Amino acid sequence: MSIGAHLQELKKKHAHLSDTVEKQQRSPGVDDLTVQELKKEKLRLKEEIIRLDS
Description:
This protein has 54 residues and is mainly α. It has helices at 3-26, 32-53. Helix content is 85%, strand content 0%.
């Protein structure tokens, strides 16, 4: 897999996680631990995207 393709895949995953976090936060009875874990994964992906993009 080329770096460009890998970068695109990471961006898709990041966008999906972003949507998931937003949905979780809007739903009643949200599990704060789950949201926190999703945000950590989202941040890890963002850092990887930045690293590969530079």
